[in-house]
Prior knowledge:
By secondary structure, this protein is of the alpha/beta class. 39% of the residues lie in helices and 18% in strands.
Amino acid sequence: MKPACESALLTDLYQLTMLQAYWQHGMDGEAVFELFVRKLPESRAFLVAAGLEQALDFVEGARFADDELAWIERSGRFAPGFAQWLSELRFTGDIWAMPEGTVFFADEPVLRVVAPIAQAQWLETRLLNLIHFQTAIASKAARCVLAAQGRTLIDFGLRRAHGAEAGLLAARAAYLAGFAGTATVLAGARFGIPVFGTMAHSFVQAHDSEAEAFARFAESFPQHTVLLLDTYDTVAAARRVVELAPRLAARGIEVKGVRLDSGDLDALARAVRRVLDAGGLRRATIFASGNLDEHRVAALAASGAPIDSFGIGTSLTTSSDAPYLDAVYKLQEYAAMARRKRSAGKSTWPGRKQVWRARDASGRFCGDLVTLHDEPGEGEPLLVPVMRGGRRLPQPALADARARCREQLEALPPALRILTPPWPAYPVTIGAGVRRLAGEVDARTP
């Protein structure tokens, strides 16, 4: 079979059971589904849309392989002929979405799918899987970017990620949100993201002396000499770097920086900075890592700790304080009739919709309006066409999505840029047309 992340069987069973029922009963009318977040996590004032690139890759290439169809046939769960019908299933519809890097809020459709109902239903699980994950990570990364106040951030999270695809896509989402790069090599090869790395403590331990380890690493990487100090005594290691620096300089090698990975990073950074400066290494930067999140980064930045850049791993790649979003993919229209779910606490707004964003005189976001898709609105329409007739339209490059995210974060109201609640409620207004349509749907639905 195909690798898991490419398989059409990477879905929930109920997608296949519904597809069979649609097929058997001739239900092939046009459906409209929208993907949105019901409510924000308590630790988030906003979210950042991400994952659209991978979602479109999936939709455009989605099809069942022969061995997958054979498994469906021999599973005993499905009707004769169903696998043959699936063999011809392709997405032929249209998709609208918020561009990657767009800040959004609860109750706002991030993506709209318009296609025959079986095609649109088929996409649900994997679309949510891809967009939910990268959006959660990009939203976490954006908070780290705000906390760092211009300092460089590097993704260090692969080893703690929940699987290979998660680690790779977390690197992409973090870069989109403003990180400078990643330690994940494949993200550099696949997405063109800058890659960063120094050495592990094991490299130092494998040598008979710390000084020997530093010298050998510098000889191997003369253009990227960043040395890890905290294997034994951090400040003593900084002194060894100062002692070694003249010998390296005589060979044309400059110590570019040092890395701290444990202990009281504020106190150690100040002590190391004093040692480096006194030894003539004023240009050497200090890079800090070790169980960091946006709150620790913000505290170090606020204290004036002389740290130039940070590596953030576990808390980023798991979005540790908000590891999931209440993201859903719901039917809003079928066979030219608006549809609405009315479950307690999970009701939806019917019809295909658009989100309009207004800005104040200074360019800051001041409120969003959710209308029916063909109603006029004021400000910027956030949903744009990204796929027509089953073929993707040209999309912004990752660098452009990154630039969009930077502009979006700068345009946030200042009160939403702080890290801790309570935040003022950002105004998202459900338009009169949407509310009227909901009333009409309720009147005709038992």
